[in-house]
């Protein structure tokens, strides 16, 4: 196996300050597509804020561990070797059961009696920190109740560079501030509930196509390496790692590195990304786990900052591992320094102790991902250990109510010319497959890999089984019957003559449900390899809307989708009296939309992305065909920070509905902006050095001490162990290149254990970067008056123009959601931190507040900026 490590630097070319406006076009591909080496891998800081107690407990625990135990803790036991989607080896001697890493960001994947929550993107549309936190807390509670130790979410990569990208819905928004708040509130919720969160995928994981070589071959492209996301340093800071900084600051216990390459170095062995950005600059104290099969090397990934190999085998079910026995050998033969394996174990245990007091009392893992059967083999791949593997523990509590509330409060009322809210309509006609049930049941397609019936989540590993799914048809019919309305529904998009006959009748209020789906790259739905192949509605949806609205003057359209769809052909038809985006609402879908349509919940969702008129109007797009022969497809993020609304603003394009847009059944007026400057003082770069790398405990170098203990343990087929098969190191490693020394194949400083200088932009003891970046520089207040006749929630948005020629027109920096009674005025209060006002200076390698005049705006969307003031 060829070793792939970070290529040597060319990046200083990017360091030119005061870059010209079109810098990205001037750089040639080489400049953008190499990743500098950053070594050694930072070791934990015992004084890090929020981690001290966890560190002390972890140090005590790790000090008692043997080398085999440390390797066990860092290496997954193999695909389907145990119950969860990933597990590491247990430490029976110290009473720690095997830790369970399990999907997913919207609920527990593949189990039963769990809730199916709204997607990340949907909860982002609430613009409500409290609801994001409560969703995280509920997911964390459910995970804990099933015996899951690390839940594999939330998601900030993809952030949503391209609207067609398959997994955008798992994350929050293409705006880094909204995503950052989504990350931190979710993480706090999950971890307060007693489960470790995992911020993923670090970083630049923006599309499904070509993320894995084998997968790409499956759809006909014979590439030898995965896609490289080529991201310049400024864009990396101002956009892609911004929300990860918030995640680290929120104390996230783990981070998952990504499948694709970053500047032509694999995400899980990219020393610039993991050692440099994540651990050095952001001061991340938890552990980095690989995405499943995203690890491609042993010692090289270890020194580049990977801490846990998932699911542990080189590829699914090879029975071989880059770590396991290889890591044991690599520590014994000095390739991987002892402090590095100690630091891996320390980071894992510190994350553990951050959410648990002790190793005892953990909920046993009481479900199996691989089957819903009560009894079966606990070692699924090996078909070994037949026993009760599913205990069917109901962990849902009252989460259905929260899901209904989020679904309603996330719904974005894009258009309303007066037909909403509904008040006992005489005749309600509900049209479209998306209003009804999947005829084969809501869980009939594996990992939701189909688009049958109403769409309430996308497909892939980011899914959960529905405990039930309330369809719009069921909920609206129940409401209609209660009101004495006449009710009929046609739950197909293709019954054209019957639909015409129905909606052409007198007194009809027609509600048309349409959708667009996407998901993860290992499932192909109707020719969509994860990423959407187009931005239009699925299953004839546009024709359905156009037809119904040509026959019925009161047509209301509800969209369930994974992101924007093109509304261009029909949105301004006057017969279309209302348009709503309901996202992916989860199990209570029908109840949530009924609450909004009937005004039981006054809509307050805001679009977390832009609705462009054409696909091209978004700028960046998915790369669908390899562009580098059989080599790694190259995706240059040449638009820099200009994605979504920043791109539309830069291009002066009109949009159908802008980022942040959403209507209410009441009206609001904005007045009286005030700006108060705080005395934050000048920025002081961090200085000094770390302590030298500590090691904990010692180990024998006699290979006899490491051979598989066959007298104590039964060997399980394909299972990954820390043990050696033989005392012959070369044979035990089964590595044809065995014997190369660290000096021969690892980069300089990879094994250095001496004190290291702290980066000026780093936080010292404060995770998330230099703490002064979070100093409040300005407090902005404004008065918001409810000028309508009913109570409503207004999402007040704070935007800033940083003023430079290369800065976006405006960027979102804060928001607040205010509940205001009719006739009343409430005060919005938002803040601007130093980071909010800074640009990343590539030469200085730090954040700098430029001298350009900065303007703050308080408004109701990215293009309705009611109030403004110059920052002095
Ligand atoms: C490693 O983990 C396996 C599986 O959980 C366990 O059987 C074994 O005892 C562990 N080994 C050590 C040295 O703790
Ligand atoms: C050790 O890693 C190499 C790749 O570096 C792999 O070929 C080999 O099979 C691994 N050995 C074991 C025992 O898993
Ligand atoms: C469900 O979806 C699959 C795949 O998209 C499709 O082939 C099938 O016809 C659908 N089944 C029903 C009952 O709608
Ligand atoms: C129902 O339709 C008829 C015919 O257009 C009209 O006269 C009547 O006012 C309508 N009633 C309601 C409640 O909309
Ligand atoms: C876009 O893709 C969807 C899903 O595959 C498909 O139903 C639809 O027909 C496509 N739209 C166009 C205009 O081809
Ligand atoms: C609106 O609906 C009426 C039927 O009530 C139809 O005659 C008219 O053509 C429709 N208008 C548009 C723009 O589709
Ligand atoms: C956008 O409009 C501004 C102000 O009218 C103008 O200066 C700028 O050149 C325009 N940009 C583009 C890309 O058309
Ligand atoms: C180690 O030994 C087990 C049991 O004999 C065997 O199944 C496995 O393939 C061996 N692994 C390697 C890397 O030789
Ligand atoms: C040390 O072990 C690792 C992992 O098996 C192997 O790749 C490397 O070649 C070995 N180095 C030496 C000097 O034996
Ligand atoms: C802003 O202007 C002052 C005074 O001219 C200068 O010292 C400082 O370096 C400038 N700051 C930046 C970020 O350019």
Keywords:
872 residues; alpha/beta; Rossmann fold; six-stranded mixed sheet; 29 strands; 23% helix; 17% strand; globular; binds 2-acetamido-2-deoxy-beta-D-glucopyranose; Glyco_hydro_3_C_sf; carbohydrate metabolism; Fn3-like; polysaccharide degradation; EC 3.2.1.21
Proportion of beta-strand residues: 15-25%
What general outline do the C-alpha atoms trace?
globular
The count of strands amounts to 29
Query: What is the rounded distance between the termini?
Result: 58 Å
CATH superfamily of one domain: Glycoside hydrolase family 3 C-terminal domain
GO molecular function: beta-glucosidase activity
Protein name: Beta-glucosidase cel3A
Family: Belongs to the glycosyl hydrolase 3 family.
Keywords: Carbohydrate metabolism, Glycoprotein, Glycosidase, Hydrolase, Polysaccharide degradation, Signal
Could you characterize the architecture of this molecule?
By secondary structure, this protein is of the alpha/beta class. Among the domains are: 190 residues, 3-Layer(aba) Sandwich (Rossmann fold), CATH 3.40.50.1700; 106 residues, Immunoglobulins (Immunoglobulin-like, Sandwich). 23% of the residues lie in helices and 17% in strands. The chain has 22 helices and 29 strands. The strands form eight sheets. It has a six-stranded mixed beta sheet with strand order 1-2-3-4-6-9. Strands 12-19-18-15-13-14 form a six-stranded mixed beta sheet, with helices on both faces. Strands 8-7-5-20 form a four-stranded mixed beta sheet, with no helix packed on it. A hairpin with a 7-residue loop joins strand 28 and strand 29. Helix 4 packs across helix 14, helix 15 packs across helix 19 and helix 17 runs parallel beside helix 18. The longest helix has 18 residues. It is globular, with a radius of gyration of 27 Å. The N and C termini lie far apart (58 Å). One 2-acetamido-2-deoxy-beta-D-glucopyranose binds next to loops. Pathway: Glycan metabolism; cellulose degradation.
């Amino acid at each position: 196996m060829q070793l792939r490590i970070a290529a040597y630097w060319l990046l200083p070319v990017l360091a030119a300050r005061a870059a010209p406006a079109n810098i990205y076009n001037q750089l040639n591909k080489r400049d953008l597509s190499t990743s500098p080496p950053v070594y050694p891998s930072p070791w934990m800081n015992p004084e890090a804020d929020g981690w001290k107690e966890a560190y002390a407990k972890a140090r005590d625990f790790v000090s008692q561990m043997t080398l085999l135990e440390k390797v066990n803790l860092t290496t997954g036991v193999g695909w389907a070797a145990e119950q969860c989607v990933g597990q590491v080896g247990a430490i029976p001697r110290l009473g720690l059961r095997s830790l369970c890493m399990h999907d997913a960001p919207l609920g527990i994947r593949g189990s039963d009696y769990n809730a199916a929550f709204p997607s990340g993107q949907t909860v982002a549309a609430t613009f409500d920190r409290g609801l994001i936190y409560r969703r995280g807390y509920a997911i964390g509670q459910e995970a804990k109740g099933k015996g899951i130790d690390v839940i594999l979410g939330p998601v900030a990569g993809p952030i949503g560079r391209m609207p067609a990208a398959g997994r955008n819905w798992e994350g929050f928004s293409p705006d880094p501030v909204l995503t950052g708040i989504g990350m931190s509130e979710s993480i706090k919720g999950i971890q307060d509930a007693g489960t470790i969160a995992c911020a993923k995928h670090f970083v630049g994981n923006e599309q499904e196509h070509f993320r894995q070589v084998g997968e790409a071959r499956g759809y006909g492209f014979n590439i030898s390496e995965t896609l490289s996301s080529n991201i310049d340093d400024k864009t990396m800071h101002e956009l892609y790692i911004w929300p990860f900084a918030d995640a680290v600051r929120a104390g996230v216990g783990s981070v998952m590195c990504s499948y694709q390459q970053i500047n032509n170095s694999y995400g899980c062995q990219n020393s610039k990304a993991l050692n440099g950005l994540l651990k050095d600059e952001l001061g991340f104290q938890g552990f980095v786990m690989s995405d499943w099969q995203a690890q491609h090397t042993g010692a090289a990934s270890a020194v580049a900052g990977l801490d846990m190999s998932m699911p542990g085998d080189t590829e699914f079910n090879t029975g071989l591992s880059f770590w396991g026995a290889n890591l044991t050998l690599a520590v014994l033969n000095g390739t991987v320094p002892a402090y590095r394996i100690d630091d891996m174990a320390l980071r894992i245990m510190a994350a553990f102790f951050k959410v648990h007091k002790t190793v005892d009392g953990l909920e046993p893992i009481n479900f199996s991902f691989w089957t819903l059967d009560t009894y079966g083999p606990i070692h699924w791949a090996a078909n070994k250990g037949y026993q009760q593997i599913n205990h069917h523990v109901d962990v849902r509590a009252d989460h259905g109510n929260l899901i209904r509330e989020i679904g309603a409060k996330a719904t974005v009322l894009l258009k309303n010319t007066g037909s909403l809210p509904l008040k006992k309509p005489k005749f309600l006609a509900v049209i479209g497959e998306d209003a009804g049930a999947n005829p084969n049941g809501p869980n009939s397609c594996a990992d939701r890999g189909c688009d049958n019936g109403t769409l309430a989540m996308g497909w892939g590993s980011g899914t959960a089984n529905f405990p039930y799914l309330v369809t719009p048809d069921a909920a609206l019919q129940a409401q209609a019957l209660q009101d004495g309305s006449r009710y009929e529904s046609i739950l197909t998009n293709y019954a054209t003559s019957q639909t015409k006959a129905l909606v052409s009748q007198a007194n009809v209020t027609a509600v048309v449900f349409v959708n667009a789906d996407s998901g993860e790259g290992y499932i192909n739905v109707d020719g969509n390899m994860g990423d959407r192949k187009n931005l239009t509605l699925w299953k004839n949806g546009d024709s359905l809307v156009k037809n119904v609205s040509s026959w019925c003057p009161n047509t209301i359209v509800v969209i369930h989708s994974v992101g924007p769809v093109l509304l261009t052909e029909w949105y301004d038809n006057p017969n279309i009296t209302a348009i709503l985006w309901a996202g992916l609402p989860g199990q209570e879908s029908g109840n949530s939309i009924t609450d909004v349509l009937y005004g039981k919940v006054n809509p307050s969702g805001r679009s977390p992305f832009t609705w462009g008129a054409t696909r091209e109007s978004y700028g960046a797009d998915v790369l669908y065909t390899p562009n580098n022969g059989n080599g790694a497809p190259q995706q240059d993020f040449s638009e820099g920070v200009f994605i979504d609304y920043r791109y539309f603003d830069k291009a002066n394009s009109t949009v159908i509905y802008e980022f942040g847009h959403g209507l209410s059944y009441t009206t609001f007026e904005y007045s009286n902006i005030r700006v108060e400057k705080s005395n934050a003082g000048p920025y002081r770069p961090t200085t000094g050095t770390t302590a030298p790398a500590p090691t904990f405990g010692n180990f024998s170098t006699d290979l006899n001490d490491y051979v598989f203990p066959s007298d104590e343990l039964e060997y399980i087929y394909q299972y990954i162990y820390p043990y050696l098969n033989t005392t012959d190191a070369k044979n035990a490693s089964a590595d044809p290149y065995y014997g190369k020394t660290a000096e021969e194949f690892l980069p300089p400083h990879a094994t250095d254990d001496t004190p290291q200088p702290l980066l000026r932009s780093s936080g010292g003891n404060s995770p998330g970067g230099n703490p002064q970046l979070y100093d409040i520089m300005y407090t902005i207040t404004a008065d918001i008056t409810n000028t309508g006749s009913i109570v409503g929630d207004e999402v007040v948005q704070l935007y800033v123009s940083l003023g430079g020629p290369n800065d976006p027109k405006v960027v979102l920096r804060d928001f607040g959601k205010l509940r205001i009674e009719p006739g009343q005025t409430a005060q919005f209060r938002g803040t601007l931190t130093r980071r909010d006002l800074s640009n990343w200076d590539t030469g200085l390698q730090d954040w700098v507040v430029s001298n350009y005049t900065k303007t703050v705006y308080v408004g109701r969307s990215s293009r309705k900026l009611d109030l403004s003031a110059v920052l002095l």
